[in-house]
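In response to the reviewer comment on reproducibility (Comment 2.3), we provide here a single inverse folding case reported in full, input and output, so that an independent group could reproduce the run without further information from us. The structure tokens appear first.
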């Protein structure tokens, strides 16, 4: 068990009870290839753990290197969207140390990786390096398939899937609609009777986007919250075709304990996770803590770094400007194609 020093005193009790992500604590931090492989394929865990503790692959042996990640070129803002008050300061590029990148398996960075040479391989507004499996990312068609109340009732055709999950109001429906370029597809999940279900949307007849119920709805009775936990945790632990969870975090407000709890649970249970920071177009507001979305995102990452040995993949997004949309699809394509091949 690792107890960490934290700046948020009300998190101390919560965090001190956490274990490190089990898979990561057994691996050297420089074994990025092995860690990424596990993030991609949790069912291969025993095989991955049997790898010799001697690092086979260490692309980031030069610790001083940093990489500058560009944010999207000036976003197109629709005059019909009053919330689209873009903060020009969010357009500063992000600078990351190389060891904070997510490097997919079978991806080699140049041995002498410098910010210039590695630039083109990192997805804009993210820490994700593009690997050889990033292809076939566009959504051509999307259809709602079914709502399930139990994991056992989910589609059984073996297609790979990605689950979207986050607090109520985080922007999950907006993101789902944006990914499939349909205005109201996600409304299906909001119909009475479907909100507490696992909703499957088939994409290009090849893979699924899965909409899970939002958590942390203040008005929900205690009992239904417990049921929700049981139900979604069962899905995460048992669904063999789940390639990765996409955990949505609202970057326009400071980190919430419930989101940190969620990330920690996924880490402890070795569920592969990508963080999607939503609402990154929003200006900082005093009433929301007075911090910019990328500052909130950075704080969130540093808080969850307690649960993970290597930084999980993350992407900054906005459904108002479409920031991150293509990047999410490319990332999903490389996770999916790798998963299919192995
Ligand atoms: P859900 O409850 O997680 O499905 O959230 P919704 O998609 O219904 O969005 C909740 C609210 O956040 C709505 O008012 C959306 O218009 C707003 N919203 C969602 N995504 C964004 C975004 O990227 N930027 C901004 N500014 N607002 C957003």
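Designed residues, in position order:
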């Amino acid at each position: 068990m690792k107890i960490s020093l934290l700046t948020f005193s009300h998190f101390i009790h919560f965090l001190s009870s956490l274990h490190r992500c089990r898979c990561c604590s057994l691996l050297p931090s420089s074994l990025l290839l092995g860690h990424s492989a596990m993030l991609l394929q949790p069912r291969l865990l025993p095989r991955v753990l049997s790898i010799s503790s001697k690092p086979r692959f260490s692309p980031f042996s030069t610790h001083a290197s940093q990489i500058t990640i560009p944010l999207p070129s000036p976003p197109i803002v629709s005059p019909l969207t009053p919330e689209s008050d873009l903060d020009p300061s969010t357009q500063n590029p992000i600078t990351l140390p190389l060891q904070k990148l997510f490097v997919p398996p079978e991806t080699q960075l140049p041995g002498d990786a410098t910010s210039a040479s590695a630039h083109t391989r990192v997805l804009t507004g993210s820490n994700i390096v593009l690997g050889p499996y990033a292809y076939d990312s566009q959504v051509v068609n999307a259809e709602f398939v079914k709502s399930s109340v139990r994991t056992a009732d989910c589609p059984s055709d073996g297609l790979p899937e990605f689950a979207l999950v986050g607090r109520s109001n985080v922007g999950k429906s907006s993101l789902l609609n944006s990914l499939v370029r349909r205005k109201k597809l996600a409304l299906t999940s909001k119909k009475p009777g479907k909100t507490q279900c696992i909703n499957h949307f088939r994409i290009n007849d090849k893979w699924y986007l899965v909409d899970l119920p939002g958590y942390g709805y203040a008005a929900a009775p205690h009992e239904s919250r417990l049921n929700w936990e049981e139900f979604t945790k069962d899905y995460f632990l048992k669904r063999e075709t789940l390639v990765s969870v996409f955990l949505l975090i609202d970057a326009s407000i400071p980190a919430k304990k419930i989101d940190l709890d969620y990330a920690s649970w996924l880490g402890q249970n070795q569920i592969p996770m990508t963080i999607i920071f939503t609402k990154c177009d929003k200006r900082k507001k005093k009433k929301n803590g007075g911090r910019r979305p990328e500052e909130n995102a950075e704080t969130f990452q540093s808080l969850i770094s307690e649960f993970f040995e290597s930084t999980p993949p993350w992407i900054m997004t906005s459904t108002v400007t479409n920031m991150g949309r293509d990047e999410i699809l490319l990332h999903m394509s490389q996770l999916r194609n790798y998963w299919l091949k192995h």
